[in-house]
């Protein structure tokens, strides 16, 4: 029997790579003769580069870039052939801001990551956008690549006050001859009722008055750049990093599709007898571009059973089936909430060991 293990991260406790290893460890304890294939997954947000590196190999280039509040933070560019993969969360992630000073948090470091990728002589740069702690419309990214304006572009959303002119041409020139791909499952525009500030601003530390003011700043910034592009799906990704990428001519693709293609997910699913996925909380919102739903759809197309192991399972059997799952198992139900958070890897391995008994041929 062959089991493919393809989970997302368990937010706040385990990376996708750690989750896959824990599930594999538990499964092997119950069924040591089973062939286990690990394919940790991501959707363009935190863990994007590590997941791709785990499955595709390639070369990691270590760099230091400007963090959201100005200090240096470590970043990693993955180079596979003529393609470089960059993860915006490494330079402007919510874990770097902690929701503090959101109005001065910027994305300059993301542009520096793109510059580091370009320095490798690649012909294609894939930018994973998600999990940001910034809402600067990607202005910092543009500044790092050479864009100029009549206001500072690298000072967070507050720095955009009074903006009326933005020259993006130098940033576009920096990417001359290089294909840019925006990998994100977010389809929000930059501004408005469903824009970056109103939809994601509160979780980044913006108060209700802040949201209104920052949305207004982004509106003026969008008019100074290209209002039409600001309305495109994905412009609101990563606090507007998506907008900056689209201004630079990026093609937007769902992050999960990018990862699935890079790791050969469809072929690996067809080669498996069972697919195991997972995430921190499995609920009906999982249908909105999340990893378990995407993995399950690939499994359905290949006529393979798919189950999920999650921190919490918040759907009933009918919803579970609608999401393409043949089974869903909750870590909290198995070991309790306290232990699930205190020893996530150990607890997940134990859950996998129990589930393997029901799903392994011969058990």
Structural features:
363 residues; alpha/beta; Rossmann fold; Glycerate kinase, domain 2; 2 domains; 6-stranded mixed sheet; 5-stranded parallel sheet; globular; Glycerate_kinase_RE-like; transferase; Glyc_kinase_flavodox-like_fold; Glycerate_kinase_sf
Describe the structure.
Keywords: Kinase, Transferase. Belongs to the glycerate kinase type-1 family. This is Glycerate kinase. InterPro entries: Glyc_kinase_flavodox-like_fold (IPR018193), Glycerate_kinase (IPR004381), Glycerate_kinase_RE-like (IPR018197), Glycerate_kinase_sf (IPR036129). The protein is an alpha/beta fold. The chain folds into two domains: 2-39 and 266-359, Rossmann fold; 48-256, Alpha-Beta Complex (Glycerate kinase, domain 2), CATH 3.90.1510. Helix content is 41%, strand content 19%. The protein contains 18 helices and 13 strands. The strands form three sheets. Strands 3-4-5-6-9-10 form a six-stranded mixed beta sheet, with helices on both faces. Strands 2-1-11-12-13 form a five-stranded parallel beta sheet. Strand 4 and strand 5 form a beta hairpin. The mean pLDDT is 94.
């Amino acid at each position: 029997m062959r089991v493919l293990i393809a989970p997302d991260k368990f937010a706040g406790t385990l990376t996708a790579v750690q989750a896959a290893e824990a599930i594999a460890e538990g499964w092997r304890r119950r069924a040591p003769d089973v062939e286990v294939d690990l394919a940790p997954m991501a959707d363009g947000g935190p863990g994007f580069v590590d997941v791709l590196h785990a499955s595709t190999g390639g070369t990691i280039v270590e760099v230091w870039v400007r963090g959201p509040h100005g200090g240096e933070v470590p970043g990693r560019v993955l180079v596979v052939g003529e393609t470089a993969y960059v993860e915006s969360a490494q330079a402007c992630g919510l874990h770097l801001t902690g929701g503090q000073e959101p109005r001065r948090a910027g994305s300059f470091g993301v542009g520096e990551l793109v510059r580091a990728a370009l320095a490798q002589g690649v012909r294609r740069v894939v930018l994973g956008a998600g999990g940001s702690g910034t809402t600067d419309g990607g202005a910092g990214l543009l500044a790092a690549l050479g864009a100029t304006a009549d206001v500072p572009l690298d000072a967070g959303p507050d720095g955009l006050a009074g903006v009326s002119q933005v020259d993006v041409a130098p940033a576009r020139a920096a990417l001359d001859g290089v294909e840019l791909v925006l990998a994100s499952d977010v389809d929000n525009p930059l501004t408005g009722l469903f824009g970056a500030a109103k939809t994601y601003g509160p979780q980044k530390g913006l108060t209700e008055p802040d949201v209104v003011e920052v949305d207004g700043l982004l509106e003026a910034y969008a008019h100074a750049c290209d209002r039409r592009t600001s309305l495109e799906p994905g412009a609101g990704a990563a606090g507007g990093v998506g907008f900056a990428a689209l201004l630079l001519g990026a093609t937007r693709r769902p992050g999960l599709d990018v990862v699935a293609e890079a790791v050969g997910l469809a072929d690996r699913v067809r080669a498996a007898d069972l697919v195991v996925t997972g995430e921190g909380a499995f609920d009906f919102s999982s249908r909105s571009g999340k990893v378990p739903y995407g993995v399950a759809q690939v499994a359905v197309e290949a006529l393979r059973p798919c189950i999920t192991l999650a921190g919490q399972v918040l759907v009933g059997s009918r919803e579970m089936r609608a999401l393409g799952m043949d089974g869903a198992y909750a870590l909290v139900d198995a070991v309790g909430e306290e232990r699930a958070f205190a020893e996530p890897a150990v607890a997940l391995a134990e859950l996998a060991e129990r589930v393997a008994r029901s799903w392994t041929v011969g058990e």
